[in-house]
Hints:
Blueprint (H helix, E strand, L loop, with lengths): L26 E6 L5 E4 L3 H4 L5 E5 L1 E3 L3 E6 L2 E10 L4 E7 L9 E5 L2 E8 L5 E5 L5 H8 L6 H4 L6 H6 L7 E4 L11 H9 L3 E7 L22 E5 L1 H12 L4 E4 L1 H10 L9 E5 L14 E5 L6 H10 L1 H13 L10 E5 L1
Parallel strand pairs: 1-17, 3-12, 3-14, 4-11, 14-16
Antiparallel strand pairs: 1-2, 5-6, 6-7, 7-10, 8-9, 9-10, 12-13, 13-15, 16-17
Amino acid sequence: MRVDLFDFDLPAENIALRPARPRDSARLLHVDGSKPFGHRHVRDLPQLLRAGDVLVFNDTRVIPAQLDGMRGEARIGATLHKRIDLRRWQAFVKNAKRLRPGDVIQFGANFTAIAEERHDNGSWTLFFEGDEPVEVLLERAGRMPLPPYIAGKRATDEADKHDYQTIFAQEDGAVAAPTAALHFTPELLDALDAAGVSRETLTLHVGAGTFLPMKVDDTTDHTMHAEWGQIDEDTAVRLNAVRQNGGRLIAVGTTVLRLLESAVDENGIIQPFAGDTSIFITPGYTFRAIDGLMTNFHLPRSTLFMLVSALMGLEKMQSVYSEAIANKYRFYSYGDSSLLLP
């Protein structure tokens, strides 16, 4: 499909630079089949779902994966993208033309990395020297990797260490937050429990590739970035039981949806999964694992806007986004949310 079919105009004032406070006070555009749009708030979720439904969350934890360093006199910026092994990460590098294989980058006292290999997409493999775990080094010298549409307008600060982390965050490895889950609070979870809506977690380590612009004119020419995910056997069994008992499986975020659709078989049974997924979902895709999606509002011409268009239909999503823009919903990572029920 032509990428320009997924373009739209978004006023700059609709881009959120800070989250709503409290988190569950964010607005929620309720899109339920052919019913009129509902303008609600995230805290209204218990009234919008049914007893027996399950919300599925991503328990990945964002690491401070943005680094500033020096190679000799040259400034080098690195955003870690994907773990390779205990001491190696693939990273997008700013000022990469100043790097050669074997160069040493100094990111701080006793914190150095060797630039080992440049990849076809411009990223580098960095080998972090020393005995301390890389995660410890990052906590000391790294910054939270805010999306470029926020970082380009303000500096990262102490508030982002909390704001850009969900309450489900357990497993270190993401360099971008699963933002749909940023809206949840303990009080909202209590209300969902009381309404009979259960929850499950899985892990998908979101990579910085999620922010890369599409550089092709047709979706068939796009190579999707890979991310590592895991669904354990017990979780898969419980998720399948929900649907067998008539409940709906609602993915909280596109990361959850992509992992579930990677793990489901042709009969609609979710299988245990551990490994990379580079699934690219565009209109025409047949969904087998999920019955709905809670998600924030995405960038024009992005793979994520293509994904929601596959779920609801392109014309429907164009109408949804027009409604959101006209009603001044806040977009992107710190923005408002939507509940999409085909």
